Amino acid sequence: MLEPVNVSLESLNLMTLAPMLIPIVGALLILVVDLFKANQHKSLYVMLSIIFLAMDFGALLESAGMFAEGGTMMGVFDVMLIDGLAIVSQFIIVGASMLFIPLALTHSRFHEFSYPEFFALFLFMISGFQFMVATDNLILIFVGLETASLALYTLIALHNRDKSFEAAVKYFTMGALAAGFYSFGAMVFYALTGSVEINQIASVLEANNYADIGYVLVGVVFMLASFGFKLSLVPFHTWAPDVYEGASASMAGYMSIVPKIAAFIVVMRLFEFMVHSGIVWLETILYVFIVITMTIANIWALVQTDVKRMLAYSSISHAGFVMAAVMIGTTQANSALLMYWVLFAFTNLGSFSMLWISREKGLEAHKGSDHSYDKFAGLIKTSPFAATIMALFMLSLAGIPPFALFWGKLYMISSAVNGGYTILALIMALNSAIAGYYYLKLIIYMFMKEPVIGKDGHVYAINSTLSLQTIIGFAAIATIFAFLFVNPLLEFITAFVYNSGY
């Protein structure tokens, strides 16, 4: 007969759950408020969301302080893992979410923000992403992944346009397939090692000297396919442009940032120990994924006639660019990945938000998109400030100094050179040059072409609210003055990554 085991609350270290529980409590509170007093103005739900995200950020600051003093923390039967990667990635997740949610204080035509369910689902989604990055348990990663994904599918559909429903269904279908691949890959690793903890899986495989290399290959292939979907790596990217086009522009910008950083952290935990073990075929597979994703996505972006789809393919290319850090596997590369994504968050969310403020309520019958290049033609004459801000974001995405992503690209390429991947560094630099063409194409339309006049005699105009202007202005300031904080940011990230053993 098994003896009962006494577990003390202190040994569970429940404080490790605090950052994830705060948005869950916020989501439940929003639902309760709506239950007892329906039809409240959306500003109430925006403020509640911001308050709970600020509390979440505060809990993360406390976790960061505890980590700085005592190192990596385990909790809740050693399922939770609070290390430097978990803390920095959660800062990015919560910070980007705090940038996004005030955009809900905009014109009533974006009706999805009038539903309290939107804000509740948004907070549930954030909690799911936090669970993904704050554990090395494959089961809890799956729970966090599905919690976040199911909420995100619904948020896309709430946009309530024909393309939004199509996008949500496509994303759901591809997400279900990715979940199946993940489950099968996790099953293979569990069968090989008897554990679902990534650290334990690494120890057992290394102790056996990767004797079952064929089965390891099967597990790796399924896991790569699963996260290939989540990171929209070629050839698993096919859903991304259609889903980005169907979602609201700001949600598309958010999707290009937060879900991907969560997936990158899991990929780093799962594959870097194998790369360090000298498995040549894994390095080759990753190399092919990286080069193909960067290059093919850039080529597709070159031929797009829709700015939103161009930015979608651009985001795919950036994901491939950053994926190089996982293969390089050094502390410098991992730090560069996280810093790149912080800078990318400001620039890309700002770019998509600029699309959002020029959205058309109803499209003419012959148009398939409301974000064609023609809409931006001559924007310098109709709205000089908007044209200047959009050009700023395009120059940053192209990696033009001294704007934000120049520093991200510089450190990523530098980490490739220092890691011995000189040819990869050259390919990364070449792809950055190719990408510059389609970013400059939009700038040429805005500054060197005449405004396009519609059938009713009007030119396309920019419409925005104070909240939208504030967020875009904040993103623009961060993009311009990145050189002032990029070194302290890199030092902060490197300290956390190094102390985590990555």
What would you say this structure looks like, in words?
The structure is a single chain. The protein is mainly α. It has one domain. It is built from 21 helices and two strands. A two-stranded antiparallel ribbon has the order 1-2. Helix 2 packs antiparallel against helix 3 (42-70), helix 4 packs antiparallel against helix 12 (258-276) and helix 17 packs antiparallel against helix 19. The longest helix is centred in the middle third of the chain and has 32 residues, at 162-193. It is globular. It starts with 8 loop residues before the first helix and ends with a helix. Mean pLDDT is 84; it is low at 361-366.
Keywords:
single chain, 502 residues, mainly alpha, two-stranded antiparallel ribbon
- The percent range for helix content is over 70%
User: What's the tally of helices?
Assistant: 21
Mean pLDDT: 84
Count every beta strand, where a strand is a DSSP E run of 2 or more residues.
2
What's the number of structural domains?
1
Q: How would you briefly describe this protein structure?
A:
This protein has helices at 9-12, 18-36, 42-70, 84-100, 116-133, 138-157, 162-193, 198-207, 213-230, 239-246, 249-255, 258-276, 280-302, 307-328, 331-356, 379-382, 384-397, 404-418, 422-448, 466-480, 482-499; strands at residues 73-75, 80-82.
